[in-house]
Structure formats: structure tokens, C-alpha cells
Amino acid sequence: MVPRRVAVFTWNASADENSRSRVLLNWWWALFLVNLFFGRLAGQRYAKAETLDEIRGAIAGLMTSDVFDIVAAVLAILFVRRLTRMQNEKALRGPML
Questions:
Q1: Which of 33, 63, 71, 83 is deepest in the core (most CB within 10 A)?
Q2: Separation CA 34–CA 30 (nearest Å)
């Protein structure tokens, strides 16, 4: 939970009142967790597979996990780009007195 906590803290510190929505952050974190658990489950299934059908099913699970991983990576890139833009805009506004 630490990566999400750090991301939320950084997002909140960088956001103005109009950009507080954390939908992008929440989707990234949710897909990250889905991929983590789904990938682990598919990996265990592959390790235990003995028949050709079991191996095919496990590989399909691993491939699905890869899709989750790719989507989570794209969302992470979008999150970082948005966060960078917010921080830049805040820096350009200067200190708030």
C-alpha cells in the first residue's frame, strides 16, 4: 500500500481544487493489484500443470495477466504525465501566500 499512499500524497500536494479527482490513480492501482494477484495465481497454475490442456489454460491466464500489466503500465504513464503537468503548473504559479 505504500506506493499508492505516496502517489496519493504527491497528487494531493500537486493538485489544485479543480484537479483533485484521483480516478486515474485509482484505476492504475486497482489494475496493478489485479495483475499482481492474477499473475501469481496463473503462475502457480502453470507450475502445477501436467496435461497439455492445463498448460494451455495456465498460459492463457499468464497472457491475460500480461494484458492487465500493459494496461496498468499505460495508466501509470498517464498518471505520471498528469502529475508532472500539475506540478509544473503549480511551480509556475509561484508560492501561495
A1: 83
A2: 6
Q: How remote is the C-alpha of 43 from its chain's centroid?
A: 20
Please give the pLDDT value at position 97.
56
Hey, what's the cell of 40? 501469481
Report how far residue 42's alpha carbon sits from residue 62's, in angstroms, rounded to the nearest whole number: 5
Query: What is the reported pLDDT for 1?
Result: 64
Distances (CA, A) of 1 to 13, 29, 64, 72, 89: 18, 9, 23, 16, 28
- Which residues, including other chains, have CB under 8 Å from residue 46's CB and lie 6 or more apart? 55, 58, 59, 61, 62
